[in-house]
Amino acid sequence: LLSFFWALLPGVGRAARAQSDVQQSLPVGPGLPCGAAKTKCWLIFIRHAQAWHNAFDTLDRWRDTPLTLQGRKQAREAGRGALGAVLRQADLIVTTPLSRCLETTDLLLEEAGARNVRVLVHPMATEPWAANCDEGKPKTELLANLSDAMRPWEGFDELSEEWWAKEDDNVTARVHAFKSWIRDDLKEERIAFIGHGRFWELLLGHRLAPAEHTFRNRSLF
Predict the structure, then answer these.
(1) Is 95 helix (H, G, I), strand (E, B) or coil?
(2) What residues have CB less than 8 Å from 52, skipping those under 6 apart?
(3) Does 10 score more than 60 pLDDT?
(4) Contacts of 81 (CB under 8 A, 6+ apart)
(5) What is the SS3 assignment for 158-201?
(6) pTM of the shown model
(7) Which residues, including other chains, have CB under 8 Å from residue 99's CB and lie 6 or more apart?
(8) What is the pLDDT of residues 12-46, one digit of tens each?
(9) In terms of Cα–Cα distance, which of 102, 114, 113, 204 is closest to 155?
(10) CA-based Rg of the chain, rounded to a whole angstrom?
(11) Which helix (H) or strand (E) holds 45?
């Protein structure tokens, strides 16, 4: 039903915001095809599947919007496809604590048969605040509602109570800090990041569609 209305209303959906004047893209080169995941070192950046605020602008007033039925389908199909094969080879999967990313990660791993891959929940790449949909659940609420499959994931205990980006967030500084974190602190050779449209746009230089992914060469950092 949602897909039907989406087709009738192609303009519905959250409008892309203006690109930052100080944006600096990652040093990349061409995106690698999925087959290149067999190489030694790579990064893959994945945008979460469709959430309710992506489908209907007015729902950006909802806090921490979950995936739509279409979004859950997107994540499951991606997990059963080439992306799932890539995730099974990952040394680490990093996801933000917003519900749409946690759900996407969970569904991808379930369908890919990749529950054995280490998962780190970290807020550094969370979406810049633009509306209530970018406000997450407080840590205590988040921990109280975790699924059994998510409980072994690392990083929940280290979250602050209000870990999400606020209106005064310096997203440019956060993008630079994220690059440094990848380069200096993350030693894994094959890492999958599951995050958000705007943050990935500032980081990568282009906007990913829901459930879309792109490769970057790990050795360039």
Answers:
(1) strand
(2) 59, 62, 65, 66, 67, 68, 133
(3) no
(4) none
(5) CCCCCCCCCCCCCHHHHHHHHHHHHHHCCCCCEEEEEECHHHHH
(6) 0.83
(7) 51, 64, 65, 66, 67, 136, 137
(8) 333 333 233 222 333 333 344 444 445 578 999 99
(9) 102
(10) 16
(11) strand 42-47
